[in-house]
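ERR on first pass: missing label on line 2. Operator R.T. fixed the label and resubmitted. Corrected input:
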Amino acid sequence: MRKVYLDNVATTPILPEVMEAMLPYLKEIYGNPQSLHGWGDEAREAIEGAREKVADLIGAQAEEIIFTSSGTESNNSAIKGLAMAQQSKGKHIVVSAIEHFSVLHSARTLEKWGFEMTQVPVDKHGMVNPDEVARSLRKDTVLVSIMHANGEVGTIQPIAEIAKVAKEAGAIFHTDAVATVGTIPVDVKELGGDALSLAANQFYGPKGVGALWLKKGTRIIPFLDGGVQEGGRRAGTENVPAIVGLGKAAELAKAEMGSRVNRLSALRDRLIKGLPSRIEHVVLTGHPSQRLPGNASFCIKFIEGEAMLMLLSSQGVAVSSGSACTSRALKASHVLTAMGIPPEIAQGSLLFSFGLGNTEEDVDYVLEALPPIVDRLRQMSPLYAKFLKGKGGK
Amino acid sequence: MPIYNEKVMEHFMNPRNVGEIEDADGVGEVGNPVCGDMMTFYIKVDDNRLSDVKFKTFGCGAAIAVSSIVSEMAMGKTLEEVRKITPALVAEELEGLPKNKYHCSNLGAQALNKAIDDYLKRQGKVAKRKKGGKDEKK
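pass 2 clean. output:
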Protein backbone atom coordinates (compact mmCIF):
# COMPACT_ATOMS: atom_id res chain seq x y z
CA MET A 1 0.00 0.00 0.00
CA ARG A 2 1.13 3.51 -0.79
CA LYS A 3 2.24 5.51 2.27
CA VAL A 4 1.49 9.21 2.19
CA TYR A 5 2.60 11.35 5.10
CA LEU A 6 0.58 14.57 5.14
CA ASP A 7 1.01 15.48 8.79
CA ASN A 8 4.09 17.68 8.55
CA VAL A 9 2.41 20.10 10.95
CA ALA A 10 2.85 17.47 13.68
CA THR A 11 6.47 17.02 12.70
CA THR A 12 8.58 16.91 9.59
CA PRO A 13 10.99 14.01 9.08
CA ILE A 14 14.73 14.57 9.59
CA LEU A 15 16.60 15.15 6.33
CA PRO A 16 19.48 12.69 5.71
CA GLU A 17 22.02 15.57 5.66
CA VAL A 18 20.77 16.68 9.07
CA MET A 19 21.13 13.20 10.52
CA GLU A 20 24.63 12.88 9.04
CA ALA A 21 25.62 16.17 10.64
CA MET A 22 24.34 14.97 14.01
CA LEU A 23 25.90 11.51 14.06
CA PRO A 24 29.47 12.45 15.14
CA TYR A 25 27.98 14.22 18.16
CA LEU A 26 26.14 11.06 19.19
CA LYS A 27 29.36 9.09 18.84
CA GLU A 28 32.93 10.32 19.14
CA ILE A 29 32.38 14.02 19.86
CA TYR A 30 30.72 13.70 23.23
CA GLY A 31 32.31 16.51 25.25
CA ASN A 32 30.41 18.99 27.39
CA PRO A 33 30.52 22.43 25.73
CA GLN A 34 31.25 24.02 29.10
CA SER A 35 34.46 21.99 29.62
CA LEU A 36 37.74 23.82 29.11
CA HIS A 37 39.65 20.91 27.55
CA GLY A 38 39.78 19.70 23.99
CA TRP A 39 36.60 17.63 24.26
CA GLY A 40 34.74 20.71 25.43
CA ASP A 41 36.27 22.89 22.72
CA GLU A 42 34.96 20.62 19.96
CA ALA A 43 31.43 20.53 21.36
CA ARG A 44 31.43 24.29 21.98
CA GLU A 45 32.57 24.95 18.47
CA ALA A 46 29.71 22.80 17.19
CA ILE A 47 26.97 24.63 19.06
CA GLU A 48 28.41 28.03 18.26
CA GLY A 49 28.46 27.07 14.58
CA ALA A 50 24.81 26.05 14.85
CA ARG A 51 24.00 29.33 16.59
CA GLU A 52 25.40 31.28 13.66
CA LYS A 53 23.37 29.23 11.17
CA VAL A 54 20.13 29.75 13.08
CA ALA A 55 20.86 33.47 13.43
CA ASP A 56 21.61 33.62 9.70
CA LEU A 57 18.28 31.99 8.84
CA ILE A 58 16.30 34.71 10.62
CA GLY A 59 18.57 37.70 10.06
CA ALA A 60 19.64 37.90 13.70
CA GLN A 61 22.98 38.05 15.52
CA ALA A 62 24.41 34.81 16.90
CA GLU A 63 24.48 36.02 20.50
CA GLU A 64 20.73 36.73 20.31
CA ILE A 65 19.93 33.01 19.89
CA ILE A 66 19.12 30.91 22.98
CA PHE A 67 18.79 27.18 22.40
CA THR A 68 15.87 25.46 24.14
CA SER A 69 14.30 22.01 24.22
CA SER A 70 11.34 22.86 21.95
CA GLY A 71 9.03 25.49 20.56
CA THR A 72 6.94 24.95 23.66
CA GLU A 73 9.86 25.80 25.93
CA SER A 74 10.72 28.87 23.83
CA ASN A 75 7.12 30.08 24.15
CA ASN A 76 6.88 29.34 27.89
CA SER A 77 10.19 31.01 28.46
CA ALA A 78 9.24 34.08 26.42
CA ILE A 79 5.73 34.64 27.78
CA LYS A 80 6.53 34.06 31.43
CA GLY A 81 10.12 35.30 31.42
CA LEU A 82 9.52 38.51 29.46
CA ALA A 83 6.37 39.44 31.40
CA MET A 84 7.98 38.72 34.77
CA ALA A 85 11.00 40.83 33.83
CA GLN A 86 8.67 43.78 33.14
CA GLN A 87 6.23 43.38 36.01
CA SER A 88 7.31 46.53 37.81
CA LYS A 89 6.06 48.47 34.75
CA GLY A 90 2.70 46.77 34.51
CA LYS A 91 0.85 43.48 34.61
CA HIS A 92 -1.19 43.33 31.42
CA ILE A 93 -0.42 41.10 28.46
CA VAL A 94 -2.06 40.67 25.05
CA VAL A 95 -2.23 37.47 22.99
CA SER A 96 -4.45 36.32 20.13
CA ALA A 97 -7.30 33.85 20.51
CA ILE A 98 -5.60 31.34 18.19
CA GLU A 99 -2.19 31.03 19.85
CA HIS A 100 -0.64 27.62 20.44
CA PHE A 101 -1.40 26.21 23.89
CA SER A 102 2.21 26.78 24.93
CA VAL A 103 1.47 30.51 24.64
CA LEU A 104 -2.17 30.48 25.80
CA HIS A 105 -1.54 28.30 28.82
CA SER A 106 1.57 30.28 29.75
CA ALA A 107 -0.62 33.39 29.65
CA ARG A 108 -3.14 31.62 31.92
CA THR A 109 -0.32 30.89 34.36
CA LEU A 110 0.59 34.57 34.34
CA GLU A 111 -3.04 35.32 35.24
CA LYS A 112 -2.63 33.10 38.29
CA TRP A 113 0.48 35.10 39.11
CA GLY A 114 -1.50 38.35 39.14
CA PHE A 115 -1.32 39.46 35.50
CA GLU A 116 -4.31 40.33 33.35
CA MET A 117 -4.65 38.98 29.84
CA THR A 118 -6.55 40.24 26.80
CA GLN A 119 -7.21 37.85 23.95
CA VAL A 120 -7.46 39.58 20.59
CA PRO A 121 -10.12 38.01 18.33
CA VAL A 122 -9.53 36.85 14.76
CA ASP A 123 -11.75 37.14 11.69
CA LYS A 124 -13.30 34.24 9.80
CA HIS A 125 -10.00 33.60 8.03
CA GLY A 126 -8.10 33.45 11.32
CA MET A 127 -6.51 36.86 10.72
CA VAL A 128 -5.58 39.24 13.53
CA ASN A 129 -6.39 42.86 12.79
CA PRO A 130 -3.57 45.20 13.95
CA ASP A 131 -6.26 47.76 14.90
CA GLU A 132 -7.74 45.22 17.32
CA VAL A 133 -4.31 44.82 18.89
CA ALA A 134 -4.04 48.62 19.18
CA ARG A 135 -7.44 48.76 20.89
CA SER A 136 -6.42 46.09 23.41
CA LEU A 137 -3.31 47.97 24.55
CA ARG A 138 -3.31 49.69 27.94
CA LYS A 139 -0.86 51.84 29.86
CA ASP A 140 0.16 48.78 31.85
CA THR A 141 0.57 46.45 28.84
CA VAL A 142 4.07 45.02 29.05
CA LEU A 143 3.93 42.16 26.57
CA VAL A 144 2.15 41.41 23.29
CA SER A 145 2.50 37.96 21.72
CA ILE A 146 0.92 37.13 18.37
CA MET A 147 1.89 34.06 16.37
CA HIS A 148 3.45 34.52 12.95
CA ALA A 149 1.32 31.82 11.36
CA ASN A 150 -1.10 29.23 12.62
CA GLY A 151 -0.17 25.68 11.67
CA GLU A 152 -3.75 24.43 11.92
CA VAL A 153 -5.32 26.75 9.36
CA GLY A 154 -2.18 28.19 7.77
CA THR A 155 -3.08 31.87 8.12
CA ILE A 156 -0.02 34.18 8.12
CA GLN A 157 -0.41 37.28 10.29
CA PRO A 158 0.71 40.84 9.45
CA ILE A 159 3.37 40.65 12.16
CA ALA A 160 5.39 43.71 11.10
CA GLU A 161 2.31 45.92 11.48
CA ILE A 162 1.31 44.32 14.78
CA ALA A 163 4.83 44.57 16.20
CA LYS A 164 4.91 48.26 15.28
CA VAL A 165 1.65 48.89 17.13
CA ALA A 166 2.95 47.07 20.22
CA LYS A 167 6.34 48.77 20.19
CA GLU A 168 4.82 52.24 19.78
CA ALA A 169 2.83 51.60 22.94
CA GLY A 170 6.03 50.65 24.77
CA ALA A 171 5.29 46.94 25.08
CA ILE A 172 7.66 44.06 24.41
CA PHE A 173 6.63 42.07 21.33
CA HIS A 174 7.05 38.30 20.95
CA THR A 175 5.98 36.12 18.05
CA ASP A 176 5.59 32.36 18.01
CA ALA A 177 7.18 31.64 14.63
CA VAL A 178 7.32 27.86 15.05
CA ALA A 179 5.12 27.40 11.97
CA THR A 180 7.08 29.82 9.78
CA VAL A 181 10.81 29.73 10.54
CA GLY A 182 12.46 27.42 8.03
CA THR A 183 9.23 27.26 6.02
CA ILE A 184 8.83 30.81 4.68
CA PRO A 185 11.36 33.68 4.76
CA VAL A 186 11.55 35.17 8.25
CA ASP A 187 13.72 38.18 9.06
CA VAL A 188 13.56 39.53 12.60
CA LYS A 189 14.63 42.99 11.45
CA GLU A 190 11.71 43.13 9.02
CA LEU A 191 9.27 41.75 11.57
CA GLY A 192 10.49 44.22 14.13
CA GLY A 193 9.75 42.58 17.49
CA ASP A 194 11.86 41.67 20.52
CA ALA A 195 11.54 37.90 20.74
CA LEU A 196 10.69 34.98 18.48
CA SER A 197 10.24 31.23 19.03
CA LEU A 198 11.23 28.49 16.59
CA ALA A 199 11.44 24.69 16.58
CA ALA A 200 13.71 22.38 14.58
CA ASN A 201 11.21 19.60 13.93
CA GLN A 202 9.07 21.97 11.87
CA PHE A 203 11.77 22.23 9.20
CA TYR A 204 13.44 18.83 8.93
CA GLY A 205 15.53 19.06 12.08
CA PRO A 206 15.29 16.76 15.10
CA LYS A 207 12.60 16.81 17.78
CA GLY A 208 13.46 18.14 21.22
CA VAL A 209 15.31 21.27 20.18
CA GLY A 210 14.20 24.81 19.50
CA ALA A 211 15.44 28.33 19.97
CA LEU A 212 14.36 31.67 21.28
CA TRP A 213 15.58 34.77 19.53
CA LEU A 214 15.93 37.57 22.03
CA LYS A 215 16.85 40.99 20.70
CA LYS A 216 20.02 42.31 22.27
CA GLY A 217 19.26 44.19 25.47
CA THR A 218 15.88 42.54 26.10
CA ARG A 219 15.52 41.45 29.72
CA ILE A 220 14.18 38.01 30.55
CA ILE A 221 13.84 35.99 33.73
CA PRO A 222 15.46 32.62 32.97
CA PHE A 223 13.01 29.73 32.75
CA LEU A 224 15.61 27.24 33.96
CA ASP A 225 18.03 28.27 36.68
CA GLY A 226 21.38 26.60 37.05
CA GLY A 227 24.68 27.00 35.25
CA VAL A 228 25.95 29.59 32.84
CA GLN A 229 24.86 27.88 29.62
CA GLU A 230 23.31 30.10 26.95
CA GLY A 231 24.68 33.18 28.66
CA GLY A 232 22.95 32.28 31.91
CA ARG A 233 19.56 32.59 30.22
CA ARG A 234 18.91 28.86 29.86
CA ALA A 235 20.74 26.51 32.16
CA GLY A 236 21.30 22.80 31.55
CA THR A 237 23.92 20.86 29.62
CA GLU A 238 23.37 21.59 25.96
CA ASN A 239 21.78 18.93 23.74
CA VAL A 240 24.74 19.08 21.37
CA PRO A 241 23.63 16.60 18.66
CA ALA A 242 20.14 18.14 18.47
CA ILE A 243 21.52 21.69 18.37
CA VAL A 244 23.88 20.66 15.56
CA GLY A 245 20.87 19.16 13.77
CA LEU A 246 18.95 22.41 14.17
CA GLY A 247 21.92 24.32 12.75
CA LYS A 248 22.14 22.05 9.71
CA ALA A 249 18.38 22.22 9.15
CA ALA A 250 18.59 26.04 9.31
CA GLU A 251 21.43 26.11 6.79
CA LEU A 252 19.50 23.90 4.35
CA ALA A 253 16.28 25.85 4.84
CA LYS A 254 18.01 29.11 4.00
CA ALA A 255 19.71 27.67 0.91
CA GLU A 256 16.56 25.97 -0.44
CA MET A 257 13.87 28.38 0.77
CA GLY A 258 12.62 29.60 -2.58
CA SER A 259 12.37 26.21 -4.23
CA ARG A 260 10.74 24.65 -1.15
CA VAL A 261 8.06 27.35 -1.01
CA ASN A 262 7.28 26.89 -4.70
CA ARG A 263 7.12 23.13 -4.46
CA LEU A 264 4.90 22.99 -1.38
CA SER A 265 2.60 25.76 -2.63
CA ALA A 266 2.01 23.83 -5.86
CA LEU A 267 1.07 20.66 -3.94
CA ARG A 268 -1.17 22.62 -1.57
CA ASP A 269 -2.96 24.39 -4.43
CA ARG A 270 -3.46 21.12 -6.30
CA LEU A 271 -5.33 19.72 -3.29
CA ILE A 272 -7.24 22.94 -2.52
CA LYS A 273 -8.39 23.04 -6.14
CA GLY A 274 -9.00 19.34 -6.50
CA LEU A 275 -10.88 18.46 -3.32
CA PRO A 276 -13.98 20.65 -3.68
CA SER A 277 -14.40 19.43 -7.26
CA ARG A 278 -14.59 15.83 -6.01
CA ILE A 279 -16.42 16.27 -2.72
CA GLU A 280 -19.51 18.39 -2.11
CA HIS A 281 -19.98 20.57 0.96
CA VAL A 282 -16.32 21.23 1.70
CA VAL A 283 -15.11 24.46 3.31
CA LEU A 284 -11.50 25.67 3.10
CA THR A 285 -10.44 26.96 6.52
CA GLY A 286 -7.89 29.73 6.97
CA HIS A 287 -6.97 32.57 4.66
CA PRO A 288 -7.38 31.94 0.92
CA SER A 289 -4.04 33.55 -0.05
CA GLN A 290 -2.09 34.55 3.10
CA ARG A 291 -1.38 30.95 4.05
CA LEU A 292 1.53 28.63 4.73
CA PRO A 293 2.87 26.90 1.59
CA GLY A 294 2.19 23.39 2.87
CA ASN A 295 -1.17 23.91 4.55
CA ALA A 296 -4.46 22.69 3.09
CA SER A 297 -7.08 22.63 5.84
CA PHE A 298 -10.76 21.91 5.37
CA CYS A 299 -13.99 21.21 7.13
CA ILE A 300 -15.99 18.46 5.48
CA LYS A 301 -19.63 18.82 6.40
CA PHE A 302 -21.95 16.23 8.00
CA ILE A 303 -19.16 13.90 9.15
CA GLU A 304 -16.53 13.79 11.85
CA GLY A 305 -12.78 14.27 11.48
CA GLU A 306 -11.43 11.40 13.55
CA ALA A 307 -13.46 8.86 11.58
CA MET A 308 -12.07 10.30 8.33
CA LEU A 309 -8.56 10.33 9.79
CA MET A 310 -8.80 6.65 10.79
CA LEU A 311 -10.16 5.58 7.41
CA LEU A 312 -7.49 7.59 5.58
CA SER A 313 -4.91 5.97 7.84
CA SER A 314 -6.21 2.55 6.78
CA GLN A 315 -5.39 3.66 3.20
CA GLY A 316 -1.87 4.67 4.23
CA VAL A 317 -2.55 8.42 4.44
CA ALA A 318 -1.55 10.35 7.58
CA VAL A 319 -3.42 13.59 8.34
CA SER A 320 -4.66 15.42 11.41
CA SER A 321 -7.94 16.95 12.55
CA GLY A 322 -9.10 19.65 14.94
CA SER A 323 -12.38 17.87 15.71
CA ALA A 324 -13.49 17.47 19.32
CA CYS A 325 -13.36 13.68 19.01
CA THR A 326 -9.74 13.80 17.87
CA SER A 327 -8.55 15.86 20.84
CA ARG A 328 -7.89 14.03 24.07
CA ALA A 329 -9.82 16.73 25.90
CA LEU A 330 -12.80 16.19 23.54
CA LYS A 331 -12.94 19.87 22.70
CA ALA A 332 -13.12 21.28 19.20
CA SER A 333 -10.01 23.19 18.13
CA HIS A 334 -9.96 26.62 19.79
CA VAL A 335 -8.59 27.96 16.52
CA LEU A 336 -11.62 26.89 14.47
CA THR A 337 -13.94 28.05 17.26
CA ALA A 338 -12.25 31.49 17.41
CA MET A 339 -12.77 31.82 13.64
CA GLY A 340 -16.51 31.47 14.25
CA ILE A 341 -16.84 28.05 12.65
CA PRO A 342 -19.93 26.35 14.15
CA PRO A 343 -19.15 23.27 16.30
CA GLU A 344 -20.87 20.76 13.99
CA ILE A 345 -18.78 21.99 11.05
CA ALA A 346 -15.57 22.13 13.11
CA GLN A 347 -16.24 18.43 13.83
CA GLY A 348 -15.47 17.75 10.17
CA SER A 349 -12.00 19.31 10.37
CA LEU A 350 -9.28 17.70 8.27
CA LEU A 351 -5.77 19.07 7.94
CA PHE A 352 -3.33 18.08 5.18
CA SER A 353 0.17 19.46 5.73
CA PHE A 354 2.71 18.92 2.96
CA GLY A 355 6.43 18.40 3.27
CA LEU A 356 9.45 17.89 1.04
CA GLY A 357 8.78 14.16 0.85
CA ASN A 358 5.46 14.67 -0.95
CA THR A 359 4.72 14.54 -4.67
CA GLU A 360 1.86 15.33 -7.03
CA GLU A 361 1.07 11.62 -7.04
CA ASP A 362 0.44 11.87 -3.29
CA VAL A 363 -2.15 14.57 -3.90
CA ASP A 364 -3.79 12.51 -6.61
CA TYR A 365 -3.83 9.47 -4.33
CA VAL A 366 -5.65 11.49 -1.66
CA LEU A 367 -8.08 12.82 -4.26
CA GLU A 368 -8.89 9.20 -5.13
CA ALA A 369 -8.95 7.85 -1.57
CA LEU A 370 -10.96 10.51 0.22
CA PRO A 371 -14.23 10.75 -1.76
CA PRO A 372 -15.30 7.13 -1.07
CA ILE A 373 -14.45 7.62 2.63
CA VAL A 374 -16.54 10.77 2.82
CA ASP A 375 -19.34 9.06 0.95
CA ARG A 376 -19.28 6.06 3.27
CA LEU A 377 -19.37 8.21 6.42
CA ARG A 378 -22.11 10.41 5.00
CA GLN A 379 -24.23 7.36 4.26
CA MET A 380 -23.90 6.62 7.97
CA SER A 381 -24.56 10.17 9.14
CA PRO A 382 -27.95 11.22 10.54
CA LEU A 383 -26.97 14.84 9.85
CA TYR A 384 -26.50 14.13 6.17
CA ALA A 385 -29.82 12.27 6.07
CA LYS A 386 -31.53 15.30 7.63
CA PHE A 387 -29.81 17.60 5.16
CA LEU A 388 -31.00 15.50 2.21
CA LYS A 389 -34.55 15.34 3.57
CA GLY A 390 -34.51 19.10 4.12
CA LYS A 391 -33.51 19.51 0.48
CA GLY A 392 -36.36 17.22 -0.55
CA GLY A 393 -33.82 14.80 -1.99
CA LYS A 394 -33.64 11.03 -1.81
CA MET B 1 0.26 1.49 19.69
CA PRO B 2 -3.05 2.17 17.93
CA ILE B 3 -5.64 3.97 20.05
CA TYR B 4 -8.37 1.42 19.25
CA ASN B 5 -8.13 -2.34 19.74
CA GLU B 6 -8.72 -4.80 16.88
CA LYS B 7 -12.34 -5.45 17.75
CA VAL B 8 -13.23 -1.75 17.82
CA MET B 9 -11.39 -1.24 14.53
CA GLU B 10 -13.14 -4.20 12.97
CA HIS B 11 -16.58 -2.80 13.85
CA PHE B 12 -15.54 0.71 12.77
CA MET B 13 -14.25 -0.54 9.42
CA ASN B 14 -17.18 -2.91 8.83
CA PRO B 15 -20.12 -1.56 10.80
CA ARG B 16 -23.16 -3.85 11.01
CA ASN B 17 -26.73 -2.69 10.50
CA VAL B 18 -26.09 0.80 9.17
CA GLY B 19 -29.17 2.54 7.83
CA GLU B 20 -32.70 3.59 8.59
CA ILE B 21 -35.92 1.58 8.91
CA GLU B 22 -38.65 3.43 7.00
CA ASP B 23 -41.53 1.92 8.99
CA ALA B 24 -39.70 1.64 12.31
CA ASP B 25 -41.71 0.76 15.42
CA GLY B 26 -39.45 2.93 17.54
CA VAL B 27 -36.77 5.58 16.97
CA GLY B 28 -34.26 6.86 19.51
CA GLU B 29 -31.95 9.81 18.93
CA VAL B 30 -29.29 10.91 21.39
CA GLY B 31 -26.45 13.44 21.45
CA ASN B 32 -26.15 16.41 19.16
CA PRO B 33 -23.55 17.55 16.67
CA VAL B 34 -22.55 20.46 18.92
CA CYS B 35 -21.30 18.16 21.67
CA GLY B 36 -19.64 15.83 19.22
CA ASP B 37 -21.55 12.63 18.59
CA MET B 38 -25.07 11.94 17.46
CA MET B 39 -26.72 8.51 17.18
CA THR B 40 -30.12 7.48 15.87
CA PHE B 41 -31.40 3.94 16.40
CA TYR B 42 -34.36 2.41 14.55
CA ILE B 43 -36.07 -0.75 15.78
CA LYS B 44 -38.69 -3.19 14.53
CA VAL B 45 -40.47 -5.19 17.24
CA ASP B 46 -42.17 -8.53 16.63
CA ASP B 47 -43.67 -10.50 19.48
CA ASN B 48 -41.71 -8.50 22.09
CA ARG B 49 -38.43 -9.13 20.27
CA LEU B 50 -36.28 -6.79 18.18
CA SER B 51 -36.67 -8.29 14.72
CA ASP B 52 -34.56 -5.52 13.16
CA VAL B 53 -32.17 -2.84 14.39
CA LYS B 54 -30.53 -0.14 12.31
CA PHE B 55 -28.57 2.97 13.14
CA LYS B 56 -27.09 6.18 11.78
CA THR B 57 -24.21 7.82 13.59
CA PHE B 58 -22.33 11.11 13.29
CA GLY B 59 -19.15 10.71 15.26
CA CYS B 60 -15.73 9.26 15.73
CA GLY B 61 -14.46 5.72 15.23
CA ALA B 62 -15.53 4.72 18.74
CA ALA B 63 -19.04 6.10 18.27
CA ILE B 64 -19.45 4.11 15.05
CA ALA B 65 -18.03 0.91 16.58
CA VAL B 66 -20.31 1.28 19.61
CA SER B 67 -23.36 1.75 17.38
CA SER B 68 -22.43 -1.34 15.40
CA ILE B 69 -21.88 -3.61 18.38
CA VAL B 70 -25.00 -2.34 20.17
CA SER B 71 -27.06 -3.18 17.09
CA GLU B 72 -25.60 -6.68 17.11
CA MET B 73 -26.12 -7.17 20.83
CA ALA B 74 -29.75 -6.09 20.59
CA MET B 75 -30.76 -7.96 17.44
CA GLY B 76 -33.30 -10.72 18.16
CA LYS B 77 -33.42 -10.01 21.89
CA THR B 78 -36.56 -9.39 23.96
CA LEU B 79 -37.25 -5.86 25.14
CA GLU B 80 -36.37 -6.89 28.69
CA GLU B 81 -33.05 -8.33 27.56
CA VAL B 82 -32.25 -5.20 25.55
CA ARG B 83 -32.94 -3.07 28.63
CA LYS B 84 -30.09 -4.90 30.33
CA ILE B 85 -27.51 -3.74 27.78
CA THR B 86 -25.52 -1.27 29.86
CA PRO B 87 -22.66 0.98 28.75
CA ALA B 88 -20.32 -1.27 30.73
CA LEU B 89 -21.50 -4.33 28.79
CA VAL B 90 -21.07 -2.50 25.49
CA ALA B 91 -17.50 -1.52 26.36
CA GLU B 92 -16.81 -5.08 27.54
CA GLU B 93 -18.17 -6.54 24.30
CA LEU B 94 -15.76 -4.24 22.41
CA GLU B 95 -12.92 -5.52 24.62
CA GLY B 96 -12.34 -2.02 25.94
CA LEU B 97 -12.39 1.58 24.74
CA PRO B 98 -9.88 4.39 25.32
CA LYS B 99 -10.77 6.16 28.56
CA ASN B 100 -11.79 9.40 26.91
CA LYS B 101 -14.08 7.49 24.51
CA TYR B 102 -16.02 5.65 27.17
CA HIS B 103 -18.88 8.15 26.93
CA CYS B 104 -19.57 6.77 23.43
CA SER B 105 -20.71 3.50 24.99
CA ASN B 106 -23.24 5.46 27.09
CA LEU B 107 -24.64 7.02 23.93
CA GLY B 108 -25.17 3.63 22.28
CA ALA B 109 -27.07 2.17 25.22
CA GLN B 110 -29.07 5.39 25.64
CA ALA B 111 -30.09 5.58 21.99
CA LEU B 112 -31.31 1.99 22.02
CA ASN B 113 -33.29 2.54 25.23
CA LYS B 114 -34.83 5.67 23.78
CA ALA B 115 -35.95 3.69 20.75
CA ILE B 116 -37.67 1.19 23.06
CA ASP B 117 -39.27 4.04 25.04
CA ASP B 118 -40.56 5.41 21.76
CA TYR B 119 -41.93 2.00 20.78
CA LEU B 120 -43.72 1.59 24.13
CA LYS B 121 -45.13 5.10 23.87
CA ARG B 122 -46.48 4.38 20.41
CA GLN B 123 -48.03 1.19 21.80
CA GLY B 124 -49.72 3.25 24.51
CA LYS B 125 -47.68 1.49 27.14
CA VAL B 126 -45.75 3.47 29.72
CA ALA B 127 -42.01 3.02 29.61
CA LYS B 128 -41.15 0.54 32.33
CA ARG B 129 -37.67 1.79 32.87
CA LYS B 130 -37.02 3.28 36.27
CA LYS B 131 -35.84 6.88 36.10
CA GLY B 132 -32.39 7.40 37.49
CA GLY B 133 -31.54 3.76 36.91
CA LYS B 134 -28.19 2.58 35.65
CA ASP B 135 -29.08 3.06 32.00
CA GLU B 136 -29.84 6.71 32.57
CA LYS B 137 -26.50 7.42 34.10
CA LYS B 138 -24.49 9.85 32.01
